[in-house]
Amino acid sequence: MKSRVYHGALAGIVLTSLIIQLVLTATDSAPDAAPALTRFIRLFSYFTIQSNLLLLAAVVALAVNPHRDGRLWRVIRLDALLGIVITGLVYATILAGQADPHGAAWLADFGFHYVAPWAALLGWLLFGPRPRIDGRTLAWAAIWPAAWIGYTLAHGAATGWYPYPFADVTELGYPAVLINLGAVVLLAALIAAVLRRLDTRLPFGSPAASEFEAPEVPHPRSGGEAVVEQESGAGR
Predict the structure, then answer these.
(1) Cα–Cα–Cα angle for 194, 195, 196, rounded to 5 degrees
(2) Of the candidates 19, 96, 5, 26, which has an alpha carbon nearest to the alpha carbon of residue 52?
């Protein structure tokens, strides 16, 4: 029950932040604002938005079923956790001083960058579910950040727009940008290694779903008959 309430509340915070940001993007009337379609393409190009979308999917599922499992589920959950923690760390150390949001934009910013990352990590530490992080999950989880890096560089080369200053090839050049992105990848690998170790050691987790376990086979009697248990008083 506590897990469902916690993850439901987090889902509400993330969803509210997303709705605010969508409305702000749709109603941007600044003189230098890009066309609406371009604004939305840029919005969903941000690592912050993608990681919050993954987190929303993960916590909604956990609010419905705190013991959720499955191969795709494990990958989404790990990507959500890694992505949102990196979002919080990078924003706090690099990007926070470069933004000065006000009003509704401040609320969205606060939800995306300050509440979601650390609430998601705390929720995983408190409620799990565990174990869920194995070698195959780590390998599949690497696809999304790699795809985001490739897309960001290709989209920037085609349009001249980059979502973050540390990824701006126009200003920094490819060598510096690749070093910056490599540092983020290294950070993600370190966080993933810590999460995997904690995943098998922390308490309060739930066992993996039966689809990852060998099915139990009933033990036959020596004569080949299945064991049949009768309840005491049955039929009386």
Answers:
(1) 90
(2) 19
Structure tokens at 9: 């509340």
Q: Give yes or no for a contact between 112 and 15, defined as CB atoms under 8 angstroms apart.
A: no
Dihedral sign computed on CA atoms, order 30, 42, 95, 154: negative
pLDDT tens for 52-73 read 999 999 999 999 999 999 999 9
Distance (Å, whole) CA 154 – CA 128: 36
Question: For position 215, what pLDDT does the model report?
Answer: 38
Helices (H), the chain: 2-26, 36-43, 47-64, 71-90, 104-110, 116-127, 135-141, 143-159, 169-172, 174-199
Decide: 168 and 156 in contact? Cβ < 8 Å. Answer: yes
The Cα–Cα gap between 204 and 212 comes to 19
Q: How far apart are CA 72 and CA 119, in angstroms?
A: 23
- Could you tell me the CA-to-CA distances from 115 to 2, 13, 17, 47, 139 in Å, in that order? 18, 8, 10, 16, 28
One-letter identity of residue 136? R
Look at residue 141 and give its three-state secondary structure: helix
Structure tokens at 214: 């060998």
Measured CA to CA in angstroms, residue 171 lies from 160, 162, 164 at distances of: 10, 10, 11
Residues linked to residue 226 through DSSP beta bridges, in sequence order: 220
